Amino acid sequence: MLKIGCHLSVSGGFLNMARTALEIDANTFQFFTRNPRGGKAKALNEKDISAFIDFTREHKIADFVAHAPYTLNICSDKENIRQFTVETFEDDLARLEHIPGCMYNFHPGSHVGQGLEVGIDLIASALNQLLRPEFGTIVLLETMSGKGSEIGGRFEDLHEIIDRVEHSDKLGVCLDTCHVHDAGYDIVNDLDGVLTEFDRVVGLNRLKAIHLNDSKNSIGARKDRHETIGNGYIGLEVFRRIINHPVLRELPFILETPNELPGYAEEIMLLRGMWVG
Is the C-alpha dihedral spanning 81, 87, 93, 96 positive or negative? Predict the structure, then answer.
């Protein structure tokens, strides 16, 4: 069965989030670990977590993706921002150990003028400080559009980070379709070629999740503006190929399109109708 879901709000609790997923026919989903602009996370409710685990197992909802706040920048040129990021990251990883089968996705960050090499080194150093061999959570580096001084717009960036991390078995990649398109990878006309390049540089074994988004921009624009499925420059037929591709079809697909719940439900229904079981 196609593993498809969307970004949901955790504000009502984990069990409520899982019930919402079921209502829109999602069997996976993504959520922010805390306010996407940062701030302190709410204390975990053990009864809610226990009920959530039972409910998701019963209804075969799995492969959850927790998304780090947008404000985190692990390779900032300001030490206080880097320290805030590490502390938040560390807290999130400790909390996620209570949720079996959850992955933690984050934007690698922006080097803000320090240079790519410095930025990559800061990211890898922080991950070496944070990752532990006993963790059950896999940390995902997200592919980015490459705007400004953003790191992760090239597959080589991700390879360099992973290569410098001691416990690299705790690292994976989340491929965002809008981001790679905007970064210049031609998934519209050469999906197989892009996946071959990813395998050569990073390794397809690292690919753990897909952010499924159309793009408001032409290829290589480096702007990162998501569009609803089939209504952007990527186009509906490409998404049909992506969800049915033998290399990708078993991965969890997460919608981050500009939608509310009814729109996500429609996109999930559309994509399920295109999936060849």
Answer: negative
